[in-house]
Write a structure and sequence with these properties.
Blueprint: H1 8-17, H2 20-23, H3 32-57, E1 66-68, E2 71-73, H4 76-87, H5 106-119, H6 121-140, H7 143-149
C-alpha cells in the first residue's frame, strides 16, 4: 500500500512538527497550509510510485550494475523504477525549475528519498547522488556549466 511509503507519521511530522512559515520555499507571503498540502500531494504520489517500484524490485535485489564494453548497465528493476519516477516528474525535487526541479525544501526531498530507499535502496542511491550533484552544480557551478544543463 502507498500508505506504507508516505505514512501517517511522515504526514504528521510535515503537518504539525515543522515551522513551515519560517522555512517556506515561497517566501513570507506564502500560505503555509496550502504549501504543506502541496508537499503532501507530491509525497502521496511518490508513495504510489514507490509501491509500484517495490513490487517490481524485491525479487531482483540480487542483481548488480555491470560495466559492459565501457557502458554501465543497470538491472531492469532500477531502470524501470527510474523511468517511473521520471514519468511522474519526480526527479531532483529540490532543484529550481530552470533545471527541471520544483524548488521544494530539502526536508520534503528527505522524505522522498526515504520512501525510495524503502522501495529500492539501489535506486535511492542513484537518485540521491544525482540530486546532490545537480544541487552542487546549481549552487556552485560556473555559468557555462549551468547553461549546459539548464532545462
Amino acid at each position: 500500500m502507498a500508505e506504507e511509503f508516505f505514512n501517517a507519521d511522515m504526514e504528521f511530522f510535515l503537518d504539525r512538527r515543522v515551522d513551515w512559515g519560517a522555512i517556506s520555499a515561497c517566501g513570507a507571503d506564502a500560505n503555509a497550509p496550502d504549501e504543506v498540502e502541496t508537499y503532501n500531494v507530491v509525497l502521496r504520489t511518490a508513495g504510489e510510485i514507490c509501491e509500484a517500484i517495490d513490487d517490481g524490485a524485491r525479487s531482483q535485489w540480487h542483481e548488480h550494475v555491470v560495466l559492459e564494453d565501457g557502458e554501465v548497465v543497470v538491472p531492469p528493476h532500477i531502470a524501470a523504477g527510474s523511468a517511473r519516477l521520471r514519468a511522474a516528474g519526480l526527479v531532483s525535487l529540490p532543484l529550481g525549475p530552470a533545471y527541471g526541479g520544483y524548488g521544494l525544501p530539502s526536508l520534503v526531498n528527505s522524505a522522498f528519498l526515504e520512501m525510495i530507499a524503502r522501495a529500492d535502496s539501489s535506486l535511492m542511491t542513484i537518485v540521491g547522488l544525482q540530486a546532490g550533484v545537480a544541487h552542487d552544480m546549481e549552487s556552485y557551478g560556473s555559468d557555462e556549466l549551468k547553461a549546459r544543463y539548464r532545462g
